[in-house]
């Protein structure tokens, strides 16, 4: 019995010692940084202490701190405590430096942290500042443009997929597009994404979530190194802070972060000159070619249909089909183009058809020559030529009302031409003319109208001039009309999108931004909320109008992702028109 009590006592003592174990350690935001960057150092303890002594920070200058953060919480009857001293340091030179030991006194015992070695390198192109919220957002949010092929041939399809990668350490509450890429040296087509889908994956070896924002198919139209401009987004990122609520939960700070996919360079190879067919018109891909006729036996003056069809996968919209050539005895009409083309991540595929109507003018047998179509095959990296078969038309009989005779000595076949009795009935033989001398002109109603017309025009001109002068003198009225006209101009795209919630609010937000760019001479990079407030205040815009404008901008951001009725969209449209008119009158 005594042995059991002894063992239990030992167990309780060990447990109490484990629970009361003091933890005091140092952490740095990074162990390698540029001389133009900043370093954050945290000294964290799990029990409260006194007489904290920081190290000397040799090789660094203290630019911030010490900042003190305390967390004390009870969860299921268990107390959790932490206290942190934070410093922000700026390197003074390149080299390897040691963050020395910090000291703290807890329950009359002195505790020290372990030294940490940090390497300072040459200045970096993009400095990352310490471990503040903006830095955390930058490190955990990435916009990437994935290119399917960086070295395509001329007119070979490549895909660009824009992915927004988000670390589990942060969350994204909203985003909007700031600048869209312009593919000036490419033929491009966007692929519609009906619904954004959150997926999981790895980014640089770490688990991330990502969403595909845009998919685009590009066909390079020039050779050499071509640049793809970046897609730029403004993203609202929720970043955990050092503060906690009364329940011990970590509080989050929202950061508006601008991210860009970065420029990408595509090295476009020219198509080989060796073996290029003379009839090659730029088709690149994998194709099939055929020429078909709906009939080969017909009567003269009877029409037939002949189709020249190309199908397959490649740059279908960027080359022409071969032109049909027929004998002079056949009348050929302009073809009807039939397109059945679709575009997805695999490129453009489908078929193109030129449908010709052909009418023979006389009896005989008429061959339609074979046609050929050449393309560059990406699988074999060589040119391919497909040749159709010759089509022979057998015209059985002569046109109605015509007769054929044998050839005379000149070798010319004479054909009798019949004339119909009603052939010239469309020509009118009765002109129904009237004598101009049937009555006197002077004194007639036409005479008095023409005589009074100049005097009436002078009177109307005077009245119009007075009206115009009165309108020009109405400064207030003209200003209101001008402001309303300007508002309607910028809001025209939004008005056309009424009923489509997402398109309407995107257009409405773009209209508000474009109006400010035009009036305040702003660039896209300056379109922050604080900057807008400052500039409007400097232009003596009253506070209520500024508040209404900023509130409408925020409504546009959130309304795209929350259900909204047509009535609400109409009200927001009218509200935007009133605000733009008010701003234009005050600026």
TrEMBL record:
It comes from the Bacteria. The chain crosses the membrane at residues 445-464. Keywords: Membrane, Signal, Transmembrane, Transmembrane helix. Residues 1-20 form the signal peptide. InterPro entries: BatD (IPR025738). PANTHER family: BATD, PROTEIN BATD-RELATED. This is BatD family protein. It comes from Gillisia lutea.
